[in-house]
Amino acid sequence: MTNENEQAExxxxxxxxxPLHIVHELMKDSVQSLGYSDNVFRxxxxxxxxxxxxxxxxxxxxxxxxxxxxxxxxxxxxxPTKGGIRFHPSVTRDEVKAxxxxxxxxxxxxxxxxxxxxxxxxxxxxxxxxxxLEDLSRAYIRKLTPVIGPQKDxxxxxxxxxxxxxxxxxxxxxxxxxxxxxGMLTGKPLILGGSAGRLAxxxxxxxxxxREAADVLNMDLSTSTAAIQGFGNVGSMTAKYLxxxxxxxxxxxxxxxxxxxxxxxxxxxxxxxxESGGVIGDYDKAExxxxxxxxxxxxxxxxxxxLENQITEKTAGQMQAKIxxxxxxxxxxxxxxxxxxxxxxxxxxxxxxNAGGVTVSxxxxxxxxxxxxxxxxxxxxxxxxxxVDGFHNVxxxxxxxxxxxxQAAYMVGVAHIAEGLSAxxxxxxxxxHQDRST
Length: 438
Ligand SMILES: NC(=O)C1=CN([C@@H]2O[C@H](COP(=O)(O)OP(=O)(O)OC[C@H]3O[C@@H](n4cnc5c(N)ncnc54)[C@H](O)[C@@H]3O)[C@@H](O)[C@H]2O)C=CC1
Ligand SMILES: O=C(O)CCC(=O)C(=O)O
Hints:
Elements lengths: L2 H14 L2 H15 L4 H7 L4 E10 L5 E10 L7 E8 L4 H17 L5 E8 L7 H15 L8 E5 L5 H15 L20 H19 L8 E5 L3 H12 L3 E7 L2 E4 L6 H9 L11 E3 L11 E4 L8 H6 L4 E3 L8 H9 L3 E3 L1 H4 L2 H15 L5 H26 L3 H19 L5 H4 L6
Parallel strand pairs: 3-4, 3-5, 6-7, 6-10, 10-11, 11-12
Antiparallel strand pairs: 1-2, 2-4, 7-8, 8-9
Helix pairs in contact: 2-3, 2-4, 2-15, 4-15, 5-6, 7-8, 7-13, 7-14, 13-14, 14-15
């Protein structure tokens, strides 16, 4: 093959695995299946705004480094845009745009009065000291201050960001504005107006959807096994709540390594080990595993909780699970998805499965706005109600249209947004009621 051909092939592969391309194709498909005109897709394909910022940081050794960050604000017809901020070396414009579209869809599925937003900085946080990371977090907010805020766009944590980072960011925003504005972001420390239950919310939501899926499949969770890829905020909380439902978690991987224990990993012990600074690759109370092997294990439930494009044609081919619960955003490539479909795996799609995070973020914002706080039990109950409703709306669409859970989730999300677009006059009644006889 010539170099040119190799390049062309590489471009096709990267285009197919480009999250923006993936979300576009899935949206087009759902717009068509709903019988809407292409105008609906045209309104949704691009974010309202994509902001690129450069941050000049003086490093501890005295050198100056430039960092690039983005914020994508997709749609604001139901309320402020909302979504996490990611610190990762592989952040790109297209990734941030796709992630913001996914945020619009998941808020729509859960009926939250929010639109989609997402941000990211191209950085490997492991290469920065805590002081440098704080400077970078504050610099990012300084650049974005004019375009974010509790009624405009509300950030939150995502990959490699956490309540500590949210605390720095909120402080920077408040200093610039001159007063305390806790609703400008969510996922902040409890002491600064964070919500009870937010840290656990995404994992809790994932497990609620697994519980509902198991019910549909007549699966007994107390005799089921699971493997989890990624043990950060989402993966660890998912493991914790799976263990509460007596699911046997036999394998867990993270970037540093993977572990396997046939009769189940003691999640409480592992969480204590991680909290005391340990990493999975050093955990000696379970067998060490090559992280790649996690895909082919004989388990009932597989949970990707790391990054995009992990379930590929190859890894899906190895998979034996009956349920794939997409805790991560965009973990499955189109080719991987086709393999899962052929194997009749019950996929709980990301825009439904991981929507517990933004749901409790919404509750956090509501509490900040009214300056009155709910108990953890209240939050858990409200989250459960929303997740169960969301799951059954998607399931209903799946059954009604004889389609798959992923397509059904897109259809529920797009239909909700389309109704809002029509009410605002962005699309016309004819765009939603095409004459299908021609
Ligand atoms: N934090 C939240 O509330 C929400 C997060 N998500 C999504 O969930 C996923 C995980 O996010 P967080 O847990 O917040 O991030 P995190 O930064 O807390 O954890 C990420 C985890 O992924 C692991 N990882 C990275 N590359 C890996 C690889 N190749 N193999 C195995 N593990 C790998 C890391 O070691 C780490 O354990 C992301 O896709 C994120 O967008 C979705 C909804 C809400
Ligand atoms: O909590 C939020 O607002 C957003 C969480 C998020 O980034 C996500 O759902 O991907």
